Fold this sequence. Notes:
- This protein is 62% helix and 10% strand.
- By secondary structure, it is an alpha/beta fold.
- It has two domains: 9-349, ABC transporter transmembrane region fold; 367-446 and 526-621, Rossmann fold (3-Layer(aba) Sandwich), CATH 3.40.50.
- β9 (573-578) and β10 (581-586) form a beta hairpin.
- It binds adenosine-5'-triphosphate and magnesium ion.
- Adenosine-5'-triphosphate is lined by residues 143, 381, 386, 404, 406-412, 452, 619-620, 654-655.
- The site of adenosine-5'-triphosphate has 16 residues, from α12.
- This is ATP-binding cassette, subfamily B, MsbA.
- One of its GO terms (molecular function) is ABC-type oligopeptide transporter activity.
Amino acid sequence: xxxxxxxxxxxxxxxxxxxxxxxxxxxxxxxxxxxxxxxxxxxxxxxxxxxxxxxxxxxxxxxxxxxxxxxxxxxxxxxxxxxxxxxxxxxxxxxxxxxxxxxxxxxxxxxxxxxxxxxxxxxxxxxxxxxxxxxxxxxxxxxxxxxxxxxxxxxxxxxxxxxxxxxxxxxxxxxxxxxxxxxxxxxxxxxxxxxxxxxxxxxxxxxxxxxxxxxxxxxxxxxxxxxxxxxxxxxxxxxxxxxxxxxxxxxxxxxxxxxxxxxxxxxxxxxxxxxxxxxxxxxxxxxxxxxxxxxxxxxxxxxxxxxxxxxxxxxxxxxxxxxxxxxxxxxxxxxxxxxxxxxxxxxxxxxxxxxxxxxxxxxxxxxxxxxxxxxxxxxxxxxxxxxxxxxxxxxxxxxxxxxxxxxxxxxxxxxxxxxxxxxxxxxxxxxxxxxxxxxxxxxxxxxxxxxxxxxxxxxxxxxxxxxxxxxxxxxxxxxxxxxxxxxxxxxxxxxxxxxxxxxxxxxxxxxxxxxxxxxxxxxxxxxxxxxxxxxxxxxxxxxxxxxxxxxxxxxxxxxxxxxxxxxxxxxxxxxxxxxxxxxxxxxxxxxxxxxxxxxxxxxxxxxxxxxxxxxxxxxxxxxxxxxxxxxxxxxxxxxxxxxxxxxxxxxxxxxxxx
Length: 658
Ligand SMILES: Nc1ncnc2c1ncn2[C@@H]1O[C@H](COP(=O)(O)OP(=O)(O)OP(=O)(O)O)[C@@H](O)[C@H]1O
Ligand SMILES: [Mg+2]
């Protein structure tokens, strides 16, 4: 309902943009018409506050009209009171002036409070919608748009978009009414004077048009630079440990300075452009006054006009320039905000490629007895092929292990099964039904996943295990016990209620992994996916947790990825992968007897039962996450929450950040 406008109007354009070869980055739809943007903003966000907006408009008009009233009162003030010396007129003129100011004060106060209230609500809804919408988008979107950029969209662009309409409306109501009422007063004094005063105005059309274009261009660049600044900050603060250990503090600080300076340069240009418009108007105003003074002054000297008339006119014209200046400003402000609106609109126009089918089919067999088959699956991230025709079956209720060198495409198989990405060719079936025919929520609901980089949220340990599940204490404790989380709870200050820090940085790598396992145990779904689930544990804990996982996998279709081959020895089937293809499959003993890649890997790892080398530890496993999540800068508040969320989205898709 809310985002139907972007969807309909610009769908094709946005699609074309997003699949552009330029690293797939989200491209701004250039020059989305102002009309379209205004209609969207009005329809989806402002209309709901129609009542308040109308009241604000009335108050604004009142505020505007008071300027006209004031300039009108100047005439009797001079002619009746000051020049003619009628003391009986003194009181009513003074009271009227006071009344005008009082009304203006009340109207202005009420209008501002209402407008900021509506503005904040609109901004909040816009941000809420934006985040909800972005969470429906594919992993690719989060890969192409780093967290910093998305934070900038959510915070910066939304507030720019939500405040501009207040400026536009107040100009439309208050300043237009001021302008008209002041012009009426001026014309009522002398239409010829008025004509002379505004004769220069048409000269402004061309330079204002040029300035507007400059403002729009520079604002766009400023917003893009601002997004880069946020990205840099996000990476610096998340990578503080890595930066320190590699001694690149100066380099990072310099890079940041470079980005912020670029932003500032564009921002200055944009503001200069915006300021140029009222400045031009002042020049033309000066010319107008010059003409009126020469012509009108002569008339007063000759006695055909009174001083009061002249002062009234002069006041009206002097007051005209303030609303006129704001009117000039509004186009600049709109052009600046338009850059933000276009970006937001472009995001709302993005559609996920991975969606539920229009008519989802039910799983034909109970999930517990559904085989999972990969049928000639091909897959590529961008253009680099990762899977080149992978076929194998993971039998229902059995444990299937996936082994192969780092980068062979094992984790990718999990991403495809859970539809974080879709194959380019071939299909994956569950119980004979293609995964694409199941409702997305139902499909993902089939799995308990322990992924390679266990991502924890900056909440309590309890919330991290529960992940919104509603279970009783007994079930929770059973899961904690099975995953050996209980072993370290007592060492934490507040036990289960201890906050785990941003991305779980308050826990060790092995502790984080056990929390992830506890989540999976508690989730209790028919299919279990374990990607290097115990790689960060010491040998002893690993053995214990391994046993727990083995008992968990009883009766469940389980797929295990492991580099340490000892942990998958007992699997019902081992699938050996090499460069995106299945090169062998069988049980441990069969594979060893056959003497292929698996036997080589095994011999490399175990010589006389002793570990010689562990291929996993140098590249993946426990060391990588620590670089990202070690002692991170403590973040708090909204920005941190947004950053965390986008960071975690990224993690879900398996993108590694460094
Ligand atoms: N998000 C991504 N974008 C681009 N390429 C990616 C992405 N994720 C993985 N790849 C590439 O896909 C290939 C397979 O990655 P995958 O994570 O499936 O390997 P893996 O077998 O799980 O390796 P490991 O044992 O190290 O976890 C790698 O060559 C990697 O460079
Ligand atoms: Mg992997």
